[in-house]
Design goal:
Elements lengths: L1 H13 L20 H12 L38 H5 L6 H9 L1 H4 L13 H12 L17
Length: 151
Amino acid sequence: MRVPIVLLGLLLALGGCGRADTAADAGVAGDRVDGSARIEAGRKLFARCAGCHEVGPNAGNIFGPQLNGVLGRKAGGVAGYAYSPALKASTLVWDERSLNAFIRDSEQVVPGNKMRFMNFMSEQQAGDIVAFLAAQGGSAAEAPPATQDEG
C-alpha cells in the first residue's frame, strides 16, 4: 500500500531535521568552487527533501510539488498541486537567491506557506541543493507534466 511507504519516507526525511549537516557530512570541502562537487553535495542533501519532493524523468507531486525546472518558474506554478493560498498569491519567481532563502526559512520568504521543514541548513548547503535542482531540468517549460499523488 502506497500510504505507509510515503509516510515512512516522510518520517525518514524528517529524522534529519534536528541536526545541521556539515559540508563534511555531504562529503565535500566547505570551500569548494567546483560545480560538479556542489551538485553532488546537493544531491546528497536533497535526500532530506525527497520525502516530499521528487525530481527526474518520472517526478510527480507528493506532499510537495515536483521540482523539475523550478528555476525560472513562478512560485505556486505546478499544475495539479494544491498550493497554500499564500504561495499561490505570491508574485515570486524562483531564482537561485529566492530558492536558497526559501529552503533555509520558507516561512520568512512566504509567510503562511505549508512547507514545514525545520532544516537548520547553512546558506552553502541550501546553495548546493539549488545547484542540484538547477542540474535536474533546464526550464520550467521542459518540466514533465505534474500529477497530484493523493494516495
